[in-house]
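For the sake of transparency, this paper describes our internal protein records without simplification. Because each token names a local backbone shape, the row as a whole describes the fold. One such record is reproduced below, unchanged from the form in which we store it.
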Amino acid sequence: MDIYSVIQFICGISFFLFGMLMMSENLEKTAGGKLERILKKTQQKPALSILLGTVITMLIQSSSATSVMLVGLVNSGIMQFTGTLYIIFGANIGTTFTAWILSLAGIESKNIFVSLLKPENFTPFLALIGVILIMISKNGRKRDAGRVLIGFSVLIYGMKLMTGAVSPLADTPQFASLMVKFENPFICLFAGIVITAIIQSSSASVGILQAFALTGAVSWSTAVPIIMGQNIGTCITALLSCIGSGKNAKRVAAAHTAVNVIGTVVFFTIFEILRYSTDWAFFSTSISPVGIAVAHTAFNVLATLLILPFTKSLEKLICRIITDSQESKPDIPTLDKRLFLSPSIAVSECMSRTRDMARLTQSTVISALDQIMSYKSKATQIITENEKLSDMYQDMLLTGLVKIAEKSISAEDSSSVSRMIYTVSDLERMCDHALHITIDTDDLMSKTKGYSSDAMRELSVLTAALKEITEITVTAFLNNDPNLAKKTEPLEQVIDKLTAVMHKNHVSRLQNGQCTVEQGLSFNDLLTDLERISDHCSNISAAVIEISRGSFETHRYLNRIKSSGAEFERIYEQYEQKYSI
């Protein structure tokens, strides 16, 4: 084996890892936020959780990625630690899928149909299909599917390069003597841990082992301890990711490590006892890529069956070791930075937080409007706290959305990100105006008895219109309903007309001495805040409508809708009759 073989082997590893990364990223992009929604729904159902963990890990090709995803979801308060062990069991089983695909590389047959089962023979066709999908398809999902096929082809090409680079080792005495040193099971176990910890993927390290197995120099007694070590080494990613996280996130990483360590200790002990107490020849026979896939799967399935009956006890033990007193609870659920390793999940969670913010905004605005008509001093503190919470949501979401926008995401996720970016600031400003209304009302009630009876009558109509436009806007955003959103702009125009009439009436009352200057100034400020709330509702609904059309020209839409449309005029007239003073 010369320097060119070493270079070829390094290139093979590079292609292998890049192909795996490309394939997993685009598979996840294709799946979108569905993974996260299913995870939350099934975490309390053991059988479904195991199946789900298996399927997700088969898709994203990494149990490490699945465990990091769990760490992020649990640390954000989206999932509870209880029940995640079952998903981890599934992740350990699902990560063996790659080894089965790669094991087909050892197929040897003159039959053309059997020969086509070898990945290196059928992946050129997959790569061609992938290139065609990327070049001619305008559909984002089809293009992502094309990238998945190309990623898989690159992965297999990397495997072929590694195999070709190490194949001369079969006739090299130095390599044979090196493999003799690996007869020590503890060295094999340690090697498996270290190599997998470095490349942070048990699927990749198993693939490398399968490439060496094709030389015929790797025995069962060498390969099995390495495979067990690989299952411990893959935990390093979750352990590193939980640094600086909350107690529940640390518990997930600890659970993943505990499952693999316990399984390794038990079956490593059994394997070595059998090895030294029996004369089975198979321990010293060469292992094939298929044999590695069998050993990898058998270990993870048996480890799951071993620990499954004691799942609840293991959860309780981990909870006792990592106690609740080690941290304080955050004021609001946060967007954990680990979520951004899975952009589709991060998009889904940002949308969940934005929905929470929208509901908070609706509640805050309605409370402020109620303060005008029926003042309650206790409500002021709640509205003030809600406004601070709204500021926190805005900072958190905009920071997160900017990070997501920098990543490669699906067209559907990109549309969701745009809708949130356009919406979050308007929601925050609505809470600001609600707070201004409350402060002005507090100030007025401390100095006077409130507004005149005529002003209150007019305000009762206007606040009713504000409540309806807020409800329409928030509901349209929550349901992504452009048809409902179209009702916002006609009502916003009616509100503008109402405030104009109320300004005029207010001037008349001032001139007639029906209200004081102080009441008049407060009334003007109040009308300004109320009108601004309706403006922000208009912006949010316009974003829902335009983004559903694949456009971002919200101002152009607002200008267009105001100048034309029989449907607009019909809805406008209905609201004008409903809210008249």
